[in-house]
Amino acid sequence: xxxxxxxxxxxxxxxxxxxxxxxxxxxxxxxxxxxxxxxxxxxxxxxxxxxxxxxxxxxxxxxxxxxxxxxxxxxxxxxxxxxxxxxxxxxxxxxxxxxxxxxxxxxxxxxxxxxxxxxxxxxxxxxxxxxxxxxxxxxxxxxxxxxxxxxxxxxxxxxxxxxxxxxxxxxxxxxxxxxxxxxxxxxxxxxxxxxxxxxxxxxxxxxxxxxxxxxxxxxxxxxxxxxxxxxxxxxxxxxxxxxxxxxxxxxxxxxxxxxxxxxxxxxxxxxxxxxxxxxxxxxxxxxxxxxxxxxxxxxxxxxxxxxxxxxxxxxxxxxxxxxxxxxxxxxxxxxxxxxxxxxxxxxxxxxxxxxxxxxxxxxxxxxxxxxxxxxxxxxxxxxxxxxxxxxxxxxxxxxxxxxxxxxxxxxxxxxxxxxxxxxxxxxxxxxxxxxxxxxxxxxxxxxxxxxxxxxxxxxxxxxxxxxxxxxxxxxxxxxxxxxxxxxxxxxxxxxxxxxxxxxxxxxxxxxxxxxxxxxxxxxxxxxxxxxxxxxxxxxxxxxxxxxxxxxxxxxxxxxxxxxxxxxxxxxxxxxxxxxxxxxxxxxx
Length: 588
Known about the structure:
28 strands, alpha+beta, five-stranded antiparallel beta sheet, 12 helices, single chain, four-stranded antiparallel beta sheet
């Protein structure tokens, strides 16, 4: 299951075309952005702070990279020489390594840095620097290099050059090793169609080259040295969510997911989508108001970095355990725009879900039954059904229907959880039944009992912290105060249990909720200096201290408990040692 988090701006950019690249730094959580030919900066992702900035009178002709072998930052200047420097050095005073052949760019695979020359030759950076006067630079192609692709599979490192010659595209690829193997060639052409995007993708322990075409189709061919073929391969899938009228950036996330960034299908703005290559379905997407021609996308850890408007944006994503239910209908209804000569036949196993649904039907109100039937006919998953139903339920203050939905649905998106939480702490008490909750010191805003029961159901549900946290940032202090107080009271109570959870699971959930609520609103809490919230903080600290004390006591008991488990019992030796005695004599 893949989800995109809320994106944020890393830094402003001058122009999309001027960005030379984004790369990872030596330290995790930091990135290097080469924003144009004269400036590059290192940023911290967590707070978007600029750590160091490099300016040069000479021109960068490649992105700035960190080379782990040299333990220095490296870049190409004016396509003719390479510099390597420490973080705080002045670039204009750093030694130059000049080459006779023009350099196209450099790239890194986290282990080694490679130099790509304009004629297509590829060498390791260390080798190129040491042997720069005697390198055997054989021409790979007479065309112009458009892009560099690379991917590591086990012990093999694949490199591809996308080359344009006389208006036509070719892919030159090979496996880099010490034997200096030659490049294999694939002509990237289809009759009356244009190439729009490309990328390497690992699938079933093989490297695949994916090519995007102007008819919305993606083709896939396996790169195998033993059976190298000059073919774009077979039809892999058809993408309807993104427009293929312009260039599309494609990047592989893992064996089951790729990311696509391009124009939206309605030609209004841009769109980023995560596509499941196993089930062949678009799982999640993020629209943008502005579309930048030829915009690129970079992958660093669990973040996608791409230009959005006048900023370089960071979009965190999560690839969790796959759930087929979350994929069904996630792209809703699609218009069939396949060519007449393309026929896709997918063999499926037909199962009857009607009997199971009817068994649950009798426990549901008729209004909910009718709505569920309508959405099921359209193939909507639970998450989309809730997105369609919930706004009306909350708008009408239909607490009974909300309770039924929380009982019936199991796959509730994090956005919906946040919306329900915000509703529960703000809804008027008159919409709930009048039976009061007996919990001592319960905030009056959380009365009556029905509100508390609904809140407990929300707190017991599973969620992804990465996805939920941005939605909780929209909470005001008024929303946050009763939630923190309730979590604190429940944690303090010895006999409190969340629905369907035992004591250990309940305490774990309460700790997790207290952490995520504070993390999402920490700045607001600190700046407000609200005494009631501060008192709740002190209470939480006491509970944490008590928990740590208990853990230390259990650590002391652990050896004894382990002996008991093994069937041994520690006994004190009460016998006396009679080999000597002590007697006190009074001399005066």
